[in-house]
Amino acid sequence: MMSGLYQKAEEQFKNRLPFALYSKPGETVAVGIFQKDASLHFTTDFKEEGFVLAPFHGEQFVLLPKEKSDVFTEAYTRIAIENNNTVFGADVAAKENFEQLVQNGVDAICKGNFKKVVLSRKETVSLENVTPFELFKKLLSAYPTAFKYCFFHPEIGMWLGATPEQLLKASGDRIKTVALAGTQVYHEGEIKWEIKEQKEQEFVTEFILEGLEDYAAEKNSSKPYTFRAGNIVHIKTDIEARLHDRQDLEKIIKMLHPTPAVCGLPKEASKKFILENEGYNREYYSGFLGELNRDFAKDKPENSDLFVNLRCMKLQNGKANLYIGCGITKDSIPEKEFIETVNKSLTLKNILG
Ligand SMILES: C=C(O[C@@H]1C=C(C(=O)O)C=C[C@H]1O)C(=O)O
């Protein structure tokens, strides 16, 4: 059965018009924003209302503006998702390349160029006869606590993902963000973290709290805790604050993005290393996306809900390009880091096929 929301999305896609379908963590409502023209709009001052998609690098933040779009919402019920047990073969060349990249990152850290860098790779998987909408629906059921989305623009392409990481939630002058780092495969029973991973996550918390210093008061942060995202777990700290001036939203977003969780510390040196060494274009992976200045489901202004674009893929010519990365510090072991990217890639591989 085709519902109204998906019928509209199929038509929009057929007509090569931009749209975003998404559902927020913990909610069972899907929102569709359907832009009425095919133009490429960008944010200018972050005062616009709409759906934003920002790349990892660069200042051109794509916007589906509210006033140029139709908005629909639709409740859904989660269904049981079977893990498809397809075994994806390991690509020897990809493994060697990534491990060399990680080793170069470790060497640069040991030389003192920076403290942490997040390195990533792209993996291409063939798609069986499946539409983006079917994949999006699977994401809705498989990842209740993630931000699930399907974004299309004729000049950008088709992106889908289920990200566990909030970049920023703003409600009037109240903001929330998180410090996320450390990764291991989920298992039953107590999850233990090594000191190295705890330290790495603390760096991220410190970076955010220091960055907020000039803009916010009443800063509060939770204790770090274990947070599950599909088949893996991370360490997470919740951070809340009150802005001195709500107009500083743009400055806060630019201070946070790209966060040490997807770029590194310090930001500029690690970013330079990524751009010069990764050897491919991340495009919108590890950028951010979501609601800008409007909660579309509740139809409320002055609410932004932005997420880091992780566990995502770009669909192109019957294939899915998956993007996966991990944080590198001086103690990183290249092979372990490669395995971590394989584990993270299962978030999406589990719904493909
Ligand atoms: C970079 C990614 O994930 C990030 C890196 C993590 C890590 O280094 O342990 C953990 C969570 C995310 O903040 C990714 O999934 O591609």
General description of the model:
This is isochorismate synthase. GO terms for molecular function: isochorismate synthase activity. The chain has helices at 4-14, 92-110, 132-142, 195-212, 249-256, 267-277, 334-349, and strands at residues 19-23, 29-35, 41-42, 50-54, 62-65, 69-75, 116-126, 147-153, 157-163, 166-171, 174-185, 216-221, 225-229, 232-243, 264-265, 288-292, 294-295, 300-301, 303-308, 312-316, 319-328. The chain is an alpha+beta fold. It has a single domain (4-349), classed as Anthranilate synthase, CATH 3.60.120. The strands form three sheets. Strands 3, 4, 5, 10, 11, 12, 13, 14, 16 and 19 form a ten-stranded antiparallel β-sheet that branches. A nine-stranded antiparallel β-sheet has the order 6-2-1-8-9-20-21-7-15, with helices on both faces. The chain has a two-stranded antiparallel sheet with strand order 17-18. The radius of gyration is 19 Å and the shape is globular. The chain starts with a helix and ends with a helix. The mean pLDDT is 94. Bound molecules: the ligand C=C(O[C@@H]1C=C(C(=O)O)C=C[C@H]1O)C(=O)O. The site of the ligand C=C(O[C@@H]1C=C(C(=O)O)C=C[C@H]1O)C(=O)O has 17 residues, from strand 7, strand 11 and strand 21.
